[in-house]
Amino acid sequence: MAEPTRLVIRRPDDWHVHVRDGAMLEAVAGFTARQFARAIVMPNLDPPITTAGAASAYRERIRAALPGSDFTALMTCYLTDSADPRELASGFESGVFAAAKLYPAHATTNSAFGVTAVRNIRPALEAMQGIGMPLLVHGEVTDPDVDVFDREKVFVERVFAPLVRDFPGLKTVFEHVSTKEACDFVLGSGPNVAATVTPHHLAINRNAMFAGGFRPHSYCLPVAKREEHRLAVRRAATSGSPKFFLGTDSAPHVVERKQSACGCAGIFNAPFALESYAAAFEEEGALDRLEAFASENGARFYGSPLNEGRIVLERVAVAVPDTVAGPGDGLVPFHAGETLEWRFAGAE
Ligand code: NCD
Ligand code: ZN
């Protein structure tokens, strides 16, 4: 059969993105709004978004950065040890919060105020379970005795499995799965447990960080793992299971903060996100499953309507630039310097 040259799919959503604030927001928001109708916006600003008031002000700044766009920013609440169940519930019920995010304290960028133990947020989780508010989880333990490559696997055993057992009615999303253990856990759980998958965890394994020298632009959290884990994440994402959906985890940092003695974690994949997913799905012989993954599974999990419009991907080579404009010395996009085979061509 001839290879397809054009793919028309329902307009997709990004269920996990960092669009930052200020000059960085101005530089990056358009990339996400160009490809996606809606996105779950992460709350790890400095200071983090912990109240509905702060979230709605942030949503206004995102709107202001995207004049003329019909993009919808879905806001999240950053959970702290002192998370207030009433604030969460009223923020969710008034339509400001779409979900709340659990960052284990010190797990990643701006997580100093994160949760030190799940028992501290039990009242918040009970409230969320009662009202159907999803919990989004950064699934890594921060115990310094645990090898950095094992942090997700150990989180599944020590934190996530007990949490799912104790809150069987809570909708939980294991964000940016990077291991076979996390994929297997999600696959083996009930319909309340789902996962997002990034383009980079489909594309690279940990060797990418050390290819001929240290490669800071392939460094993110959770860190890319061994090849067997990348393959497991690919199998899960392309399996057709409704539990896996698109969440880019696009996490821009200016070049000088990536290329530094203590470089920030984060891969900026928003400019060519759909191109990257299409490449991975095609390599797995699963282009026919891209639409459900990108445009249906996430919305169904969140209980949101499916988008109405359609977008087009064409088999046209795209050269990914070395840098894109941004604050400071600019931003290095994921796949910089590579050529991708599918091109996002806008609305149908
Ligand atoms: C994210 C960031 O920079 O905000 N970084 C990353 O490597 N993914 C934080 C996160 O989601 O862990
Ligand atoms: Zn993230």
Short description:
The protein has 348 residues and is α/β, with parallel strands linked by helices. It is built from eleven helices and 13 strands.
Q: DSSP helix count?
A: 11
Strand content: 15-25%
**Mean residue pLDDT:** 97
* Oligomer state of the chains in this structure: single chain
User: Kindly, what is the distance between the CA atoms of the first and last residues, rounded to a whole number of angstroms?
Assistant: 24 Å
Instruction: Give me the side-by-side strand order of the main sheet.
Output: 2-3-4-5-6-7-8-9
Number of E-type strands: 13
Choose one word for the global shape: globular
Task: Supply the number of structural domains.
Answer: 1
The structure class reads alpha/beta
* CATH H-level homologous superfamily name: Metal-dependent hydrolases
Helix content: 25-40%
User: What's the CATH class label?
Assistant: Alpha Beta
Radius of gyration: 19 Å
Low-confidence stretches: none
Q: What is the CATH topology assignment?
A: TIM Barrel
For the largest beta-sheet, the strand count, sense and barrel status come to: 8 strands, parallel
Bound chemical compounds? N-carbamoyl-L-aspartate, zinc ion
Q: Topology as H/E string? A: EEHEHEHEHEHEHEHHEHHHEEEE
CATH architecture: Alpha-Beta Barrel
